[in-house]
Amino acid sequence: MFEILSSYWPHIVFVLSVVMGATAAVHVAMTKEEVRSAVGWVGVILLSPIIGALLYLIAGINRIRRSVVYNRRMLRQGGALAHLDLYDAEDPMVASHFGRRFLAMKTLGDRVTRHQLMSGNDIQLLDGGDAAYEAMLHAIRFARRSIILETYIFDRDRIGKRFAEVLADAVKRGVAVRVLIDAVGARYSVPSVLGLLRDGGCEVAVFNGNVIMGLRLPYANLRTHRKIMVVDGAIAFTGGMNIREGFSQECAGADCAIDTHFRITGAVVADLFSIAAEDWHYSSGEILEGDAWEIEPPGERPGMPKLIRAVASGPDRSVETNHKMLMGAFSIARSSIRIVSPYFLPDRELISALATAARRGVKVDIVVPAANNLTLVDRAMTAQFDQVLKGDCRIWRASGPFNHSKLMVIDGRWAYVGSSNLDPRSLRLNFEVDLEVFDLAFAEELETRIDRTIKFAKPVSLEQLRARPFPVRLFERVLWLGSPYL
């Protein structure tokens, strides 16, 4: 065998190159929807068919195909959630309270998302880690039947251990507990929190755990960035908050990072549960059913006050859903677009939509941190600022601690909050969950928060960007080229 290999290895390598390169190139041509991405991958594969094909297998296949197990419409067939039909927001309700252009946003959401715009909800803003963690821990302590928690990062630090302790106490009370952590996020702390949770009796799974030698190798670059916790089918928490002490002033001091989370009750809780439960089934194989996982009837009556839709995005049948929602929102704006994002690397379509809105007279304000926790990402997005500023948009560098919040308000009426950043990873590679909120009071609360941030922020100008040394600008542009995978 060794003699055959030593004699014919050039022929073997040639055959492997042809087979692997051709297979990968055909897959690129048949599956990629963006021509620039397709051309880039085909170029890499042609330059090095074997290595290029392997790189494409690991980082280029960005679509997971999984069966639909949880969907509120499907669950209603059994009659348990049939009453939620009464909470579907009707077109006349949206048009009368928010105008016909926001009715267009409802129509868009109805067509591109998997969930309905629901009435009869309440949403509470939790400002900072201490407020968010205390509210979540309180809900866990008083859980009676079930808890499902999905998160990107769950550190084994003081905050993580506090969560592990109250979750273990809930298990001892007979509460069904399921914890899903992303395989990459679970490794942010060493040792990971997985063993501690399992020792406490929690059922734990990792999302895309076998990313090197397992069968999910093609999906190694795809992560769940969602943050969802649903307690007793009645209370949900979602937003941008990971579980780690760096966001707690109690643990990290006055320089702790800033973030925003939300406590939700009402009909939309059923949709948040279905999203987390589907991810749990994908990772563990378990279908969450039975009395413990029943959804509680909403406390609010159908109708106003707050209309909320759960928007699930990800590299499956919900690919680029958040991108489509953002494009729609920018197109209907008349007076203002307010954005807070820690990582701002929009594609050309979003930049064009923002620039077009600004040139129509819409005031476009984008707030990013002055100090970022990901230096390479910050450098890459700085390289793209000139494209945004040329479009008559304004960019602000917020002083103070790093702000991890993801907030958006359109015309003081429509809000979009959740886990999605405005970068290629969130818009195309990650599994994300956001909330589309129609409510004047909630939008005003977010705008007040954004105004407070801008008050202590510094504007970014084209003159400042161009005045920096050429090597610095070149380095940033090189990083920008690799921004989809930062």
UniProtKB/TrEMBL annotation:
Pfam family, one: PLDc_2
Keyword tags: Cell membrane, Lipid biosynthesis, Lipid metabolism, Membrane, Phospholipid biosynthesis, Phospholipid metabolism, Repeat, Secreted, Transferase, Transmembrane, Transmembrane helix
Transmembrane intervals: 12-31, 38-59
Subcellular location: Cell membrane; Secreted
Class of the enzyme per the UniProt entry, highest EC level: transferase
PROSITE patterns: PLD (PS50035)
InterPro entries: Cardiolipin_synthase, CLS_N, PLD-like_dom, PLipase_D/transphosphatidylase
Domain PLD phosphodiesterase: from-to ranges: 220-247, 399-426
Membrane topology type: Multi-pass membrane protein
Chief site of localization: membrane
E.C. no: 2.7.8.-
Function, in words: Could be a virulence factor.
PANTHER family reported in the protein's UniProt record: CARDIOLIPIN SYNTHASE, PHOSPHOLIPASE D
Protein name: Cardiolipin synthase
UniProt source species: Rhizobium helianthi
Gene field: cls
